[in-house]
Specification:
CATH topology: Rossmann fold
Distance between the termini: 35 Å
Number of strands: 7
CATH superfamily: Peptidyl-tRNA hydrolase
Number of helices: 7
Strand content: 15-25%
CATH architecture: 3-Layer(aba) Sandwich
Radius of gyration: 15 Å
CATH class: Alpha Beta
Largest sheet: 7 strands, mixed
Number of domains: 1
Length: 195
């Protein structure tokens, strides 16, 4: 059993924004694996889908708590299935310190200023869980506040690039599930840029 959580904010107004790259990635994974339809689960405060990969059950999760309370969704699901964060949890999230089109797989680490990761770390009581961080970048030369940037709607061109990155993150998640975090790091942490 593995839990793969994609972070984002619920609602159509947030759907095509950099802060929802985690939702895009877990949606791409659900499509790739032909997972069960997303189903609301009140006890986990999120949308849950189930898939199989390499003989392993994968629980896919999109917290519906809004980003800053993601831990209220992730921790109960992991505990319900007796999962261990260091072995059974992967979190997919945006990262403004990575350029658009780049991925970074990590076995653990701090929140790096990301409120969703901060909430999960607090809820689990540990920083030791794998994560795939998807490059959201920043607008060079602009003084726009970071919150405004991560919540701006993508242009058509940006959205196409984001979907390409989300599909790559889904492949990194499958690598993690089947071969572990070290292999996923080796394969996906090379310098890449969006076309």
């Amino acid at each position: 059993m593995k839990v793969i959580a994609g972070l984002g904010n619920p609602g159509a107004e947030y759907a095509a924004t950099p802060h929802n790259l985690g939702f895009m990635a877990v949606d791409a994974l659900a499509d790739r694996l032909r997972a069960t339809p997303w189903k609301p689960e009140r006890r986990f405060k999120g949308l849950v889908a189930k898939a199989a990969h390499g003989g392993e059950t994968l629980w896919l999760l999109k917290p519906q708590t809004y980003m800053n309370a993601s831990g209220e969704s992730v921790a109960p699901l992991l505990r319900y299935y007796n999962g261990r964060p260091e072995r059974d949890l992967l979190v997919l999230s945006d990262d403004c310190d990575l350029p658009p089109g780049r991925l970074r797989v990590r076995p653990s680490g701090g929140a790096g200023g990301h409120n969703g990761l901060r909430s999960i770390i607090a809820a689990l009581g540990t920083e030791t869980f794998a994560r795939v961080r998807l490059g959201a970048g920043r607008v060079p030369g602009e003084r726009r506040a970071l919150v405004d940037y991560v919540l701006h709607r993508y242009s058509d061109e940006e959205l196409e690039a984001a979907r390409t990155l989300a599909a790559e993150a889904a492949e990194a998640a499958l690598c993690w599930a089947g071969h572990g975090v070290a292999e996923a790091q080796n394969r996906f942490n090379a310098a890449r840029t969006a076309p």
